[in-house]
Amino acid sequence: MTGAATRPTLSSEDARAVIDPQSYADWDPLLDLFDTIREAQPIALVEPDDGELFTPFWLVTRYDDVMQMSKDNATFLNNPQPVVFSFRQAIEFSRAATGSDILVDSLVVFDAPVHLKYRKLTQDWFMPRNLAKIEGEIRALAHQTVDAMIDAGPEVDFVKTVAGPYPLHVVMQILGVPEEDEPRMQMLTQQLFGGQDADLSGTGMDKMTPEQVVQLVAGAVKNFEGYFADLAEQRRANPTDDVASVIANAMVDGKPLPPRDMAGYYIIVATAGHDTTSASTAGAMLALAQDPEQFARVKADRSLLPGIVEEAIRWTSPVQHFMRTAAKDVELGGQLIKQGDWLMMNYVAANHDPSQFTDPRKFDASRSPNRHLAFGAGAHQCLGLHLARLEMRILFETLLYRIDALELAGEPKRAKSTFVGGLKTLPLRIKAK
User: Fold this and answer.
1) Is 157 exposed, middle or buried (0-12, 13-18, 19+ CB in 10 A)?
2) Under a CB-based contact definition with an 8 Å cutoff, are residues 192 and 220 in contact?
3) How confident is the model at residue 199 (pLDDT cuts 50, 70, 90)?
4) Peptide bond into 165 cis (omega under 30)
């Protein structure tokens, strides 16, 4: 075990790169950086140049170490520190506004026993057996979306015409949000997750002070909370078979969910339910556009469809990190981690670890096994993973039937974001049947 006296620490330059949203927009240099760090310092301390900017944390880049953390929820806690990397200023603002270090209380921030109680409320709804009931509706949305893409073609931005709207339609239908409110949900999601990218937030955020940025994100949360409070009231008065009704009428330990917890539940379903699937869908399409032989292969052999979906999720890694707090002193990958230490599980690095994935930068629809960590693992594994796989499989069944050829029609661009990432533009030239 490496002792506390030999704490491997990243250089100032590498430390800045790990927390810089721009780094995640420059994908290949980022993967180069993680390869270097993983080889030399697989568990390394990230410290700010100015100790007041953020709490130092351990960057975890190896697949095996991230898997160990993901499965050991008693040692690596989601609370009390934020589960997403945050600067001290943002944490202090959240504490002043909500009394908590975290702006939104949701499934991703709870530990046992609360987490399991809350997860069970909707877990059955998101299982394959129940999702089969809405497969026809999802398929209809896929056909409508592909029709719209073909009508807009032959040159389209796949993100704006397909990858963005399709999963948004699906999750809003599941939540019971009217179609006319979808643009509002999209805008708020982009302010919440894409706030580090001025193109996505659409707010001139690049010209704002850090305090103004935090206030904008807090405003998006408040907007979400108000909207879903109204929706919950409607579903309590007139329940239906949608997820919104399940959450609105849920009971834990014989009591309704507290308003803050209920709002957080709605927000995590509404936002994580589409932004991540959008990123994986765009990633798959980029890979197929760059590799005509692989596109022809999967078009001829539909048994590769599940492989496309799984590889896209690994290759893209839309949720790029989560943070954990050590509940006790523990050894991780030979490094001593002290109780109270903050750690970053970097999924981009772990899902490109060559010790687990042969030629990890290659998109390979036939990759097997493909035990990626993009959905997490253990008790906190993504609640919506079956829905994401179903949505993507149905969409690509439709696309492969309707599209004969595709190629890039310009330079794709990735979002500037340390948390939820992926392509923000994907210009394609398509040839429809």
Assistant:
1) buried
2) yes
3) low
4) no
CA pair distance 131, 133, nearest whole angstrom: 5
- Secondary structure (H, E, C), the chain: CECHHHCCECCHHHHHHHHCHHHHHCHHHHHHHHHHHHHHCCEEEECCCCCCCCCCEEEECCHHHHHHHHHCCCCEECCCCCCCCCCHHHHHHHHHHHCCCCCCCCHHHCCCCHHHHHHHHHHHHHCHHHHHHHHHHHHHHHHHHHHHHHHHCCEEEHHHHHHCHHHHHHHHHHHCCCHHHHHHHHHHHHHHHCCCCHHHHCCCHHHCCHHHHHHHHHHHHHHHHHHHHHHHHHHHHCCCCCHHHHHHCCEECCEECCHHHHHHHHHHHHHHHHHHHHHHHHHHHHHHHHCHHHHHHHHHCHHHHHHHHHHHHHHHCCECEEEEEECCCEEECCEEECCCCEEEEEHHHHCCCCCCCCCCCCCCCCCCCCCCCCCCCHHHCCCCHHHHHHHHHHHHHHHHHHEEEEEECCCCEECCCCCECCEEECEEEEEEC
CA-to-CA distance for 423 and 199, rounded, in angstroms? 12
CA 11 to the chain's CA centroid: 28
Query: Which two tokens mark 239?
Result: 């329940």
At position 60, the amino acid (one-letter code) is V
Type of residue numbered 317 = S
Q: Token pair 């398929």 is at which residue? A: 139
Closest CA to 27 of 410, 387, 283: 283
> In 3D, which of 41, 14, 54 has the Cα closest to residue 30?
14
The per-residue pLDDT for range 137-162, each reduced to its tens digit, is 999 999 999 999 999 979 999 999 99
**CA 385 to chain CA mean position, Å:** 11
Burial class (CB in 10 A: 0-12, 13-18, 19+), 189: buried
Residue 204 CA to residue 417 CA, distance in Å, equals 15
User: CA 303, 305, 309: angle at the middle one, nearest 5?
Assistant: 150
> Which pLDDT tens digit goes with each residue over 270-318?
887 778 899 999 999 999 999 999 999 999 998 999 999 999 999 999 9
Q: What is the pTM of this model?
A: 0.93
